[in-house]
Amino acid sequence: MAAHNAITSTVAFCVGALIAPAFGQGSLEGLGRHLTKEELAGWNIDILPDGTGLPPGQGTVLQGQAVYQAQCLACHGANLEGGLGPALAGGVGSLTTDKPLKTIGSYWPYSTTLFDYIRRAMPFQAPQSLSNEDVYSVTAYLLHKNDILPAAATLGADNLAGIKMPNRGNFYVDDRPDVKVDRCMKDCLSE
Q: Does the keyword Heme apply (predicted)?
């Protein structure tokens, strides 16, 4: 009896999978609407390595320490050593060893990527819940703890992209002609 039920279920699933696309084709027309500029702005939050897309705001290392302690410490540890989440400091000089430790100070090529990732995905349990000032602040704190910024630093849209990360020189642009794609930044659909 169990084998009969399994065969019947499998046949029903396969028939449904074959019929559903044909049945649904016409019924999807007219669904949805175009996004408003405001709705699109909520999704268009990416930050490019050159700083394009950075929002207004700023934060300090000291403010970032408070944000880190409240939002990040449980996963990344009191000293950024990792735990539930990865280590965020240390690993300098380890990339060529058998056990490389890829952290902000040892691996990341762009400070803007750090800001983008925190803004988009952290804290893990509540992504995109931090204000821009909180993200600038915690980014400043993390860069300070990786010996990239001084303790008195203020970080914002005007200076974040100018920070030279220690490992930037070990990344390169793939300029092979067969993989080169020009980035479209305006009127992309008309091209």
A: yes
Residue 164 is given by DSSP the state B
Question: How is residue 145 written in tokens?
Answer: 């703890």
User: Rounded to two decimals, what is the model's pTM?
Assistant: 0.74
For residue 69, what is the domain's CATH number?
1.10.760.10
Q: Are 75 and 124 in contact (CB under 8 A)?
A: yes
Does 154 map to a domain?
Answer: yes
Note whether residue 171 is domain-resident.
no
Render pLDDT for 123-149 as a digit per residue (tens, 0 to 9). Answer: 999 999 999 999 999 999 999 999 999
Tokens 């349990």: give the residue: 125
- 110 CB-side CA count, 13 A: 14
Q: In one letter, which amino acid is 5?
A: N
